[in-house]
Automatic annotation (TrEMBL):
InterPro entries: Tautomerase/MIF_sf (IPR014347). This is Uncharacterized protein. SUPFAM superfamilies: Tautomerase/MIF. It comes from Pedobacter hartonius. The lineage of its organism: Bacteria, Pseudomonadati, Bacteroidota, Sphingobacteriia, Sphingobacteriales.
């Protein structure tokens, strides 16, 4: 079983939230050896002042549209983790 928590700033349209949740779900199902039917998604919408993060972390300029993914999954290999990251970046 995998549990994915997607945290982002409040105010996004329902279609946007569904598209994000589906993209993460589909990519995780393809990348991890877990099966798409064993993935649960939680969308957490935060007030604008709740997330605390560096605006220039790792040299990347982050905006208030930042999204945090918290994935609880059985141990996966580095190769599978990299496949997930690459797959999600291509969405």
């Amino acid at each position: 079983m995998c549990v994915i928590r997607i945290a982002l700033i409040k105010g996004k349209l329902p279609d946007y939230l569904t598209a994000i949740a589906d993209a993460v779900h589909n990519t995780l199902g393809r990348s991890y050896d877990n099966g798409e039917e064993n993935i649960f998604r939680i969308i957490q919408q935060l007030e604008p002042d709740e997330p605390i993060f560096e605006k220039n972390y790792e040299g990347v300029s982050n905006t208030d549209n930042i999204m945090l993914l918290d994935i609880l999954a059985p141990e996966q290999t580095v190769v599978l983790q990299q496949a997930f990251s690459a797959g999600l970046c291509s969405c």
